[in-house]
Specification:
- The chain is an all-alpha fold.
- It has two domains: 11-77; 80-116.
- 65% of the residues lie in helices and 0% in strands.
- The protein contains three helices and no strands.
- The N and C termini lie far apart (88 Å).
């Protein structure tokens, strides 16, 4: 199936690709500059929390993903159903990642609390406490029941 584009449509698509490429380049340069400023100016000894910096990287990465998916994967030009087929699972994937990270943090907090608790004393072992019915309770019977 041949696709025919008029010159104006072709030039508009080429311009859109270049605009997206420039945006991706600018965002990447800003990310690198932010990391270097954080490393050498804001926190040269590495003692501060990187929550703000990491949040910035997450937002910048999502913005870059928007340009890549929209322009280079042509989702911006697709019909609504195809766009939703790609974007809805992406939303769920992000939700799952946030949920798993949240749950992991709770497990870590519980582990820290558990490790801080004092140890319980050992319970002495006084022999077999199986207590099951019909088992060998030391009555002198061999395995054959004689």
């Amino acid at each position: 199936m041949a696709h025919s584009l008029d010159q104006e449509t072709y030039e508009q698509q080429v311009k859109s690709v270049w605009v997206a490429t420039v945006w991706l380049t600018v965002i990447t340069i800003v990310e690198v500059v932010a990391a270097l400023i954080w490393l050498y100016v804001v926190d040269p000894d590495g003692q501060k929390s990187k929550f703000l910096l990491n949040s910035f990287f997450i937002v910048a990465s999502l913005l870059k993903a928007y340009f890549i998916v929209g322009e280079f994967m042509h989702v911006r030009y697709e019909r609504r159903a195809l766009a939703l087929t790609i974007l809805v699972p992406l939303v769920f994937l992000i939700w799952f990642l946030v949920a798993f990270l949240w749950e992991g943090a709770e497990w870590q907090n519980n582990r820290i609390i558990w490790d801080a608790l004092p140890e319980l004393p050992e319970i002495p072992d006084h022999g077999d406490h199986g207590g099951g019915h019909g088992g060998d309770h030391g009555g002198g019977h061999d395995k054959g029941g004689h």
